Amino acid sequence: MTALRPVASFLLIAVVVSIALAYVGAFFSWSDDVSLPSPIELLFGPLAVAPIYALFVSMGGIVFGLPALLGVRKLGFARYRVALIVVGTSVGMVAAAVILLGWLGLIAVPLIVALGAVGGGLAAAMWYELVEKGIAHD
């Protein structure tokens, strides 16, 4: 495996997770409305906020996810998909709480923690498939 593959994987994961979280967040915000948004807004509205999500996903991945991954690798559990997803989900919840609640002072606690859990779990599953699975086969 080349040295650039983990970096490229991290960037790809950050983009995909950001887009997924933008749609999940939009779904929850639209569920409060009585009327549905237009089809164009349904398809393209979340893409407008995905770059903002990417900033927080990347920050959470570097500050919280990377140290957790190194710990899981040191303990020898990185070769297990379920272990990575459990750790990723937990770390995503903590990262979302610390970054968005502690730093920015946002109040929507259940939604923020849920988005962190979804993002962390999805990022961990993608990391396993793109990186860890390849290391196990080398």
> What share of the residues does DSSP label as strand, in percent?
under 5%
Largest sheet: none
Shape: globular
Q: Round the Cα radius of gyration to an integer and report it.
A: 16 Å
Calculate the terminal CA-CA distance, rounded to whole Å.
8 Å
Average of pLDDT? 85
Proportion in helices: over 70%
The counted number of beta strands is: 0
Distinct helical segment count: 4
Low-confidence spans: none
Based on secondary structure, the structural category is: mainly alpha
Q: Would you list the SSEs in sequence order as H and E?
A: HHHH
How is this fold's topology laid out?
Blueprint: H1 4-30, H2 39-75, H3 81-103, H4 109-137
Structure description:
- The structure is a single chain.
- 84% of the residues lie in helices and 0% in strands.
- The protein contains four helices and no strands.
- The model has no long low-confidence stretch (mean pLDDT 85).
Summarize the structure in short.
The protein has 138 residues and is mainly alpha-helical.
Any key phrases for this structure?
mainly alpha, single chain, 84% helix, 138 residues
